[in-house]
C-alpha cells in the first residue's frame, strides 16, 4: 500500500468510523477463529446433563445448552468453521469467476453472450434454494456445503469481471500491450485482471458475509453441518425449541454472533468501496 493510498484510507476511516469498527470486528472474528481452541474454557462437545440449560453466570458466561455444553465455547469454535466455509467458498468462486468473466469480457462475441445467458439463468433462481438442492443431492458434508456456496457465488464474479474487462479491453494501455507482442492470454492475466482486482475486493467482502449466512441457513434447516459439530446455524436451530420456556440465551448468543459477523463484513465492504473508488480521491 502506497503512502497516498494509506493517507486516503485514514481519511475515509476518520469520516466513516463505522468502517473502522467493522474492520476491528472482522479482525476480532478472525483472531477468535485462529486461536479459539486455546481460549475456550470448556470442551465444546463434552456434555454434562447435570448442568443442562443453566442461564449465563460467572462459570458459564453464555449459559449452557440442553446437553450441558458451554454455549460460549461452542460459539468460539463455531467461528472457525463458519469462517473457514465462507473463505473457502468465496475464494473458489472468486478465482474461477474472475478468470472466466475476464476472458469472456475480453473475447466478446458468442462466448460472452453464452456465458452471460447462463449467468442470467442462474441468478433467476433463488440462490439459497439452489444451494439447498445441491447440498441435498450431494450430501450434507462440509466440502459439499463449500462447493454449493461457491457455485451460487460464481455469477457475481463472472458478471462483475465481464463488465469491467469489457469496458477496458480496447483502452490505450491494452492496445499498447498487444502492440508489444503480448498474447491475449497474457493481456488478460497480467494487465486486465490486476486492474479490476481492487474493485472486486468490495464484492469479496460482501460475499463473505452472505456465505456465512448461507452456511448457517443450511445448518438451520438440517442440510448443513451435522451435530454435534459447533456451528452457529445448528445452535440457533437447537435453541429455537426452548424459546417458549424462557431459555433465551440458546438463540440470542449464536444469533448475535451471526448477525455481527455478517454486519461487519457488509460494513467493511461499503468502506472498501469508498477507499477504492477513484472518485473519492479529490
Number of helices: 10
Class from helix and strand fractions: mainly alpha
Q: Considering the protein shown, what is the CATH homologous superfamily?
A: MetI-like
Helix coverage percent: over 70%
What sort of overall outline do the alpha carbons produce when their principal axes are compared? elongated
Into how many domains do the coordinates divide?
1
What would the CATH topology be?
MetI-like fold
What separation lies between the terminal Cα atoms? Answer: 18 Å
Mean pLDDT: 86
Gyration radius, rounded: 22 Å
Q: Tally the beta strands.
A: 0
Provide tags for this entry.
single chain, 282 residues, mainly alpha, MetI-like fold
Textual characterization of the structure:
One of its GO terms (biological process) is protein transport. Belongs to the binding-protein-dependent transport system permease family. Its main location: membrane. It comes from Bradyrhizobium vignae. It is a multi-pass membrane protein. This protein has 282 residues and is mostly helical. The protein is built from ten helices and no strands. It is elongated, with a radius of gyration of 22 Å. α8 runs parallel beside α9. It has one domain: MetI-like (MetI-like fold, Orthogonal Bundle), CATH 1.10.3720.
List the helices and strands and how they pair.
Elements: H1 3-15, H2 17-39, H3 71-107, H4 109-124, H5 127-138, H6 142-168, H7 172-179, H8 184-220, H9 232-240, H10 249-276
Short description:
It contains 10 helices and no strands. The chain has 282 residues and is an all-alpha fold.
Amino acid at each position: 500500500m502506497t503512502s497516498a493510498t494509506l493517507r486516503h484510507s485514514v481519511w475515509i476511516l476518520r469520516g466513516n468510523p463505522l468502517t473502522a469498527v467493522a474492520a476491528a470486528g472482522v479482525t476480532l472474528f478472525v483472531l477468535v477463529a485462529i486461536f479459539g481452541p486455546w481460549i475456550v474454557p470448556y470442551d465444546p462437545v463434552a456434555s454434562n446433563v447435570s448442568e443442562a440449560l443453566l442461564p449465563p453466570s460467572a462459570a458459564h458466561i453464555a449459559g449452557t445448552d440442553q446437553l450441558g455444553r458451554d454455549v460460549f465455547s461452542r460459539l468460539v469454535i463455531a467461528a472457525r468453521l463458519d469462517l473457514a466455509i465462507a473463505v473457502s467458498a468465496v475464494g473458489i468462486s472468486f478465482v474461477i469467476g474472475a478468470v472466466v468473466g475476464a476472458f469472456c469480457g475480453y473475447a466478446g462475441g458468442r462466448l460472452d453472450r453464452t456465458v452471460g445467458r447462463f449467468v442470467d439463468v442462474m441468478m433467476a433462481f433463488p440462490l439459497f434454494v439452489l444451494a439447498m438442492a445441491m447440498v441435498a443431492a450431494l450430501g450434507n458434508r462440509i466440502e459439499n456445503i463449500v462447493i454449493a456456496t461457491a457455485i451460487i457465488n460464481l455469477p457475481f464474479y463472472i458478471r462483475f469481471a465481464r463488465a469491467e474487462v469489457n469496458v477496458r479491453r480496447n483502452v490505450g494501455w491494452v492496445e499498447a500491450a498487444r502492440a508489444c507482442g503480448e498474447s491475449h492470454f497474457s493481456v488478460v492475466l497480467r494487465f486486465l485482471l490486476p486492474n479490476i482486482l481492487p474493485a472486486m475486493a468490495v464484492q469479496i467482502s460482501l460475499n463473505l458475509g452472505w456465505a456465512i449466512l448461507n452456511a448457517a441457513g443450511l445448518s438451520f434447516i438440517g442440510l448443513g453441518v451435522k451435530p454435534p459439530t459447533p456451528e452457529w446455524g445448528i445452535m440457533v436451530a437447537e435453541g429455537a425449541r426452548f424459546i417458549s420456556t424462557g431459555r433465551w440465551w440458546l438463540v440470542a448468543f449464536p444469533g448475535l454472533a451471526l448477525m455481527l459477523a455478517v454486519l461487519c463484513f457488509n460494513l467493511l465492504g461499503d468502506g472498501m468501496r469508498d477507499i477504492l473508488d477513484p472518485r473519492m480521491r479529490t
